[in-house]
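Entry 14. Ran structure prediction on the chain below.
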Amino acid sequence: MRALQLVEFGHIAAADLSDPVAAPGEVVIRVLATGICGSDIHGFTGENGRRIPGQIMGHESVGRIHAIGEGVDPALAPVGTLATFNPVILTAERMELFAGREQHDPERRVIGVDPTLISAFAEYISVPLRNVVTLPETMPVAYGALIEPLAVALNAVRRVGVEKGDTVLVVGGGPIGQSTILAALHEGAGAVYVSEIDAARRDLCSSLGATAIDPLAGPVPEQLLALHGDHADVAIDAVGISETLADALLSTSYGGRVCLVGMGQQELALAAFRVSTEERSIVGSFCYTFAGFREAAEWVATGDPIFGKLISAEVTMDEANDAFLRLAHNPDVPGKVLVRLGE
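Output, structure tokens:
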């Protein structure tokens, strides 16, 4: 099979690898498309220290079940069925130990992050049956590659406790910010605002139902007050740098809630008095529970045309390196870029 290998930081290329064989309890998926995540870009450049040269990245995928291993009930994984997979892998024993909070297992392995795993920028991938989620043929195939980032967003809005009628500020209108807008509205937010410097991304976020703010036009808290007449109940930082966290804190009411889901910097400056004296809460969010991932899949499986707005471009494997370079150095693509690996 062909797979995109991180040859060195700043360069990926197609390599020929052996096709995976389904181990007992596993399913081989023929990958059709995989989204380029912000973490993949950071891995491509080497800036986050969480990818190494030689590995195959990718974790936001859709494909078709190609083969099943020993012990897998064919009725649970019919060959040819459209499917996605949860990239968070736990052993069977630890699945029981961490039931309902699987992402908290410190021994979890994550497809696309763990360099020992052949991940989803490959034509085939083998994953445990418990990680596979089958999808209906009635949905657009490409939507399947959006399930993972939407699961991230859904977990974030639930971690921070978005409630019906809440005013939510999303800081950062990139692909995760866009997914967060939809997730907040899905959870019943009364109004969603988004702070984003790029005009094309602001337009896309507006089409998703958010009111867009240009942080270059003035302080975000002041613009929010002028537009909304009040602070936000909740802010979700989908960038994760000191400046965006400051905007999130200053834009929420006393007692407000802030979620940090972006990972732009490993260490951030924090206006501690904004947390303590004004009794704000800050929570982190990284991925999702197994049940949350399946719920995101059910949501996307409705085939709502709004999900199509999240996809801005599709490229072939041979075009992928140029796409990574563009996203790393001139991120002028407003939404998600998918790498097509199959039909």
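Residues 149 and 176 are 6 Å apart (CA to CA). Will compare against last week's run tomorrow.
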